[in-house]
Write a structure and sequence with these properties.
327 residues; Arginase, Chain A; 10-stranded mixed beta sheet; globular
Length: 327
């Protein structure tokens, strides 16, 4: 991994701040309870790591640029940490470690993805649940490859992928990888061992070709029209059936899947996404019913956020993860 050290930024303690706890009740806020990894990239090996959750940022929006989107998501990890630090901590005695960020040095996202996958592999092999924060959605390819590497060493095979998103992100890699290609890359390379379900798909955001590619690759999806609170049981059943034979589940949350009234600060906002209540019900169901080992929250674009509402949403999703997953 050290050959890619120029793609790595160690965690910064100054990004974590918040209220001051009463000395009689210490560590009441996230910033007081988070563990900052200080050992350096050369010592980041699974046999030297311990804890319950590992946070790794993807400070990159080159993939968005290549996909003709609006840039700014590279600052997403920083904004999430700043909001997360202020939250009340309810993760009890669980150890949550910030491992810093991977970024695309000289805009080379392929090498950034390689390093990301290597670090994720070590985090998962150590027994931690990996939490990715981003950053453009090309994080998903690096994250998945890291999961795959870890599983091959742990003796597991079948991976379920649940993507909360308005887009399939199944664009062919004709001009190289970008924020719209990660699940095409995953399914082309690992499709025989992968079940991919996209939740929140919108017709206005996906061409006929992408629906054809989804069909060819065996990708299942739930359209946004079915993502309603009065349809939760049907959604739960589809999710449970889709991943029944999977050894673990990787969940990717693209914040542009939410209605823009809930998440204005994203790379590709849209008015017809799912609601906060719908998402939370489905997400908590998934965390309770499957062996979730990896999650990422992506496409936060602070440049276009309003009152940090999208960053706050992302931070609270991370908080839910650490509360609801027993690891």
């Amino acid at each position: 991994m050290t050959k890619l050290i120029k793609y790595y930024q160690p965690p910064e303690s100054k990004l974590w701040s918040g209220g001051i706890s009463d000395p009689s009740y210490p560590n009441q806020y996230w910033y007081e309870g988070i563990k900052i990894y200080k050992e350096g990239l050369d010592k980041l090996k699974s046999n030297s790591l311990h804890g319950n959750f590992g946070i790794l940022g993807y400070s990159c929006d080159e993939g968005v640029k290549r996909n003709n989107g609006r840039q700014g998501a590279k600052n997403g990890p920083k904004a999430i940490r700043e909001e997360l630090g202020k939250l009340s901590a309810h993760f009890s005695k669980k150890i949550i470690t910030d491992y810093g960020d991977v970024f695309a040095f000289e805009n080379k996202i392929e090498l950034a993805q390689e390093l990301y996958s290597n670090i994720i592999c070590e985090i998962i092999q150590s027994g931690q649940v990996s939490i990715g924060i981003g950053g453009s959605h090309d994080i998903a390819y690096g994250h998945f490859c890291g999961i795959k590497k870890a599983l091959s060493k742990l003796g597991s095979d079948k991976i379920g992928v649940l993507n909360f998103d308005a887009h399939f992100d199944l664009r062919p890699t004709i001009n190289g990888p970008n924020s719209g290609t990660p699940f095409y890359q995953i399914m082309n390379e690992f499709g025989s061992d992968t079940n991919y379900l996209a939740l929140g798909i919108q017709k206005s955001s996906n061409s006929d070709l992408l629906y054809e590619i989804a069909s060819e690759l065996g990708v299942n999806y739930i359209p946004i029209e079915d993502c309603k609170s009065d349809n939760l049981n049907d959604v739960f059943n589809i999710i449970d059936e889709n991943f029944i034979d999977c050894d673990l589940l990787y969940v990717s949350i693209d914040l542009d899947g939410f209605a823009s009234s809930h998440a204005p600060g994203v790379s590709a906002p849209g008015p017809f996404g799912f609601s906060i209540n719908f998402f939370r019900s489905v997400f908590e169901h998934v965390l309770k019913t499957k062996n979730v080992k990896a999650i990422d929250i992506v496409e936060l674009n602070p440049k276009y956020d309003i009152d940090s509402i999208t960053a706050k949403l992302a931070a609270q999703i991370v908080s839910i993860i650490t509360e609801k997953i027993s690891s």
